[in-house]
Known about the structure:
Layout: E1 3-9, E2 14-20, H1 22-32, H2 36-54, E3 62-68, E4 76-81, E5 85-90, H3 107-111, E6 116-122, E7 129-134, H4 141-151, E8 157-165, E9 168-179, H5 185-196, H6 201-207, H7 210-218, E10 224-225, E11 232-233, H8 239-248, H9 251-261, E12 263-268, E13 273-278, H10 279-286
Parallel strand pairs: 5-11
Antiparallel strand pairs: 1-2, 1-10, 2-9, 3-4, 3-6, 4-5, 6-7, 8-9, 12-13
Amino acid sequence: MDIIQKAILFGGKAIVSVVNGKDLAQVAVDKQQTNDAASEVLARVLCIGAFLGCGIKGTNIRLSVTVDGGGKCGKIIVAGETGGIVRGFVENRNPKVSKSANGTYDVSECIGKEGSITVIKDFGLKNPYVGKTQIVNGSIDSDFAYYFTTSEGLPTAVASGAVIKDGKVSSCGAIIVQPMPNCEEEYVVVLQDIVRNFTNFGELIQNKTAEEIIEENFGHFECKLMPPVYPEFKCKCSEERMINIIKSLDKEEIKDILAKENKIEIHCDFCNKYYVFDAKRIKEIANI
Length: 288
């Protein structure tokens, strides 16, 4: 089962979060039919998106993460809600990406090195929170560490990884360590050094539980586990939502579409599902 396990360190001066998102990653890969390179990128960003959603308090709060670095995957877009509920897609599901000598994909080739990460948190107020930072190197980890440090004011360390072959997700996860504003600099350095050693987090979380990773690496830092959260991939599209989209269209626009296509087809990018409405149904919906 997927899990987000958090722990308080040093009596509340830092928080470590470990995300195991193997199952949600598999759902995303199955729905998107991505190749392994795009799958890894999408899976890792989904895990970080689940972490972001887990940290938002309240109800009916929406989150969106857009990674746009100009790479071969195009934009990677993740949306979510409180409790680690996420959904996401990549613009190019089958990028041609080179492999390194050890058989891993060049993630920066997928992400790109020139562009930005944009995070929007909509709390239902007049103006949503918008955080935007530059892509650092296209590694995902450094890019999001820079986002958290620059946009949210927390000197964060991030490591993520996934093991995916021929569409099968063997593991996927992320670890995020965030010192609080009252955390002494020496603690910050120690925590960042620990995360820096997670050079292949996909393999680590394949063999260890989230709780084991925390206990083995941070258990000696006055570590106190918090109640776990169970993230999942969940798309919010439905026929009712698509009907509302049709109702929002201008009647003359609908007539023009029917004259050309004799139907309206709406595609959900997140779950890759198509909703098709024939002319008779559309006339009933739009009352034309």
